[in-house]
Write a structure and sequence with these properties.
alpha+beta; eight-stranded antiparallel beta sheet; 14 helices; about 35% strand; globular; binds guanosine-5'-triphosphate; membrane; elongation factor; LepA_IV; protein biosynthesis; ribosome binding
């Protein structure tokens, strides 16, 4: 295809603002999907996406569109993942485009995540088309939000397009505007091939399917190619485009978007952001912006039934085929048995992974509280990278560095107070604040990542009736006064409950955990102290009094079968109990104590 006739674009939108519906209308309008075969949300393929209403993996589809000038253009719609954890993948999708549709619900206005992605699109110099969706809704306020959008991107409110993805109203005008405003791709057709990987998906039948945007040269099928980050070479077994099903083509030229299959079986051999070139006579320089996937949040995952351990290992290995950011290594815990220490991009990535393990592999799992990576510098010059509280070094500590993020919060003005309180309590520092309109505020904070991974979203939602939204990106490290708090049962450390917290919060953490455990652990034949300690210094203590727990006292009267049942259940429960020193702890107690309420 002549690059002059290509338009590469993506849709930036908040969850539920109608990205999938708009994409569906575009497929329909350009005749790529016949009306009668149109199934809702053609582009959202994974079940879990459908259920949770989020788009995890980006894809690309080619739409042939005949514009007002009677010329047929190839519009490539590149889908972007919609959640904060996938910032890097979003940035690669944007880098594959020349333009972006900024899609905003006309009844809701712009959200923090959309704003963050818009800033990223502007950094990539993309042409931005502001579009208000859902104008068919009675609650729509297109004039109000057109003003808001115009204010943010610096255009005239009349330049904001108004559409309904549901009824199809305004979609054709939108595509015509797109052809007009998004510049065609530029590149060197005669230079050595350079193509950027913006997505990489494992397919059971075909191996890894790699989505690419060709920048220079030509990427043909049956060619030897090189992944520039690792210098590994592969053969392109198939090159194709998606429209809307995969279709083979002889190759892809400048500005074209499509997929390649090389037979590799693991997405780590075909990494998002990497540059593909020819194995012989290839390009000298990679395209800019490549990053190794970097796990930010760690948690221990344990099967509730210890015999599931091999199943969990196999399942993690399988998930890793399709997830270059997931890392794991075996770990043992005195309290929880055999499991894995897993690293994730963020909280949602963690949640999705756990949900998939439980659903697709029928596993029952328990996870330890998530923590971030700490750099610990000792007085003697040693340096430790700590991803697990149990690795926290003993001895004289000089400095501890923790990861911080830049957060963008958007909220109705009335909740500014509660948000400031929350961010303050989470050690945040306010960087700036702007009114987007009379009643909507953008607040920018620097916050420790550790404070966000622990129920920040829930707190934010409950303090703002669900109206505030947050987006964040990694922003380096800061020195902080952090300590490790251990929880001890009769003097024995319970590894799963050790936590690295700010010194000011250590006491509160200790009190909370000791109280919780006192309530959850049944009385033993002897008194059991539950303590929280920093090193050898005890900072909180509770006692579980010594009384033999007499389950039979619960059944007054003489129903013998009921008594027998209770005794059996008690036996059953004991089988699942773990010993911490001399203290017998039912597994249930660990599970409850680890779940955040
Ligand atoms: P994710 O895939 O979760 O990111 O959401 P999305 O942005 O793709 O939103 P989706 O297309 O799933 O739309 C969200 C909801 O809004 C669905 O119930 C749609 O039917 C509805 N919707 C989308 N566009 C319109 C519109 O123009 N008018 C009305 N009334 N509803 C719409």
């Amino acid at each position: 295809t002549d690059p002059a006739l290509i338009r590469n674009f993506c849709i930036i939108a908040h969850i539920d603002h109608g990205k999938s519906t708009l994409a569906d209308r575009m497929l329909q309008l350009t005749g790529v999907v016949e009306d009668r075969r149109m199934r809702e949300q053609y582009l959202d393929r994974m079940d879990i996406e459908r259920e949770r209403g989020i788009t995890i993996k980006s894809q690309a589809v080619r739409l042939p569109f005949t514009a007002l000038d009677d010329v047929t253009y190839a519009l490539n719609l590149i889908d972007t993942p919609g959640h904060v954890d996938f910032t890097y993948e979003v940035s690669r999708s944007l880098a594959a485009c020349e333009g972006a549709i900024l899609l905003v619900d006309a009844a809701q206005g712009i959200e923090a995540q959309t704003l963050a992605n818009l800033y990223m699109a502007l950094d990539h110099d993309l042409a931005i088309l502001p579009v208000l969706n859902k104008i068919d809704l009675p609650a729509a306020q297109p004039e109000k939000y057109a003003e808001e959008l115009a204010g943010i991107i610096g255009c005239d409110p009349s330049d904001v397009l108004k559409v309904s993805a549901k009824t199809g109203d305004g979609i054709e005008e939108l595509l015509n505007e797109l052809v007009q405003q998004v510049p065609p791709p530029e590149g060197d057709p005669d230079g050595p091939a350079r193509a950027m990987i913006f997505d990489s998906v494992y397919d059971t039948y075909r191996g890894v399917v790699t989505y690419v945007r060709v920048v220079d040269g030509w990427l043909g099928s049956r060619e030897r190619i090189e992944m520039m980050s690792s210098k590994a070479t592969h053969e392109t077994l198939e090159v194709g485009i998606i429209s809307p099903e995969p279709t083979k083509v002889p190759g892809l030229g400048v500005g074209e978007v499509g997929y390649i299959i090389t037979g590799v079986k693991d997405v780590r051999h075909s990494k998002v952001g990497d540059t593909i070139t020819s194995a012989t006579g290839g390009a000298a320089e990679m395209l800019p912006g490549y990053q190794e996937p970097q796990p930010m949040v760690f948690s221990g995952l344990y099967p509730i039934d210890g015999s599931d351990y091999p199943v969990l290992r196999d399942a993690l290995e399988k998930l890793q085929l399709n997830d270059a950011a997931l890392v794991f290594e075996p770990e043992t815990s005195a309290a929880l048995g055999f499991g894995f220490r897993c690293g994730f991009l963020g909280l949602l990535h963690m949640e999705i992974t756990r949900a998939r393990l439980e659903r697709e592999y029928d596993l029952n799992l328990i996870s330890t509280a998530p923590n971030v990576i700490y750099d610990v510098f000792m007085d003697d010059g040693e340096r430790y990278t700590v991803t697990n509280p149990s690795e926290f070094p003993e001895g004289k500590i000089g400095e501890i560095h923790e990861p911080i993020v830049k957060g963008t919060l958007l909220s109705p003005a009335e909740f500014v107070g509660p948000i400031m309180e929350l961010c303050q309590a989470r050690r945040g520092s306010l960087q700036g604040m702007d009114y987007l309109s009379e009643d909507r505020v953008e607040m920018r904070y620097v916050l420790p990542l550790a404070e966000i991974v622990f129920d920040f979203f829930d707190q934010l939602k409950s303090r703002t009736k669900g109206y505030a939204s947050l987006d964040y990106e990694p922003s380096g490290e800061q020195v902080s006064d952090l300590v490790k708090v251990d929880i001890l049962l009769q003097g024995e450390k319970v590894d799963a409950f050790s936590a690295i917290v700010h010194r000011d919060k250590a006491h509160a953490y200790g009190v909370e955990m000791t109280k919780k455990l006192r309530e959850l652990i049944p009385r033993q034949q002897f008194e059991v102290p539950v303590q929280a300690a920093i090193g050898s210094r005890v900072i909180a203590r509770e006692n579980i009094r010594a009384i033999r727990k007499d389950v039979l006292s619960k059944c007054y009267g003489g129903d013998i079968s009921r008594k027998r049942k209770l005794l059996e259940r008690q036996k059953e429960g004991k089988k699942k109990a773990k010993m911490v020193g001399r203290v017998e702890v039912p597994q249930e107690a660990f599970i409850s104590a680890l779940s955040t309420e």
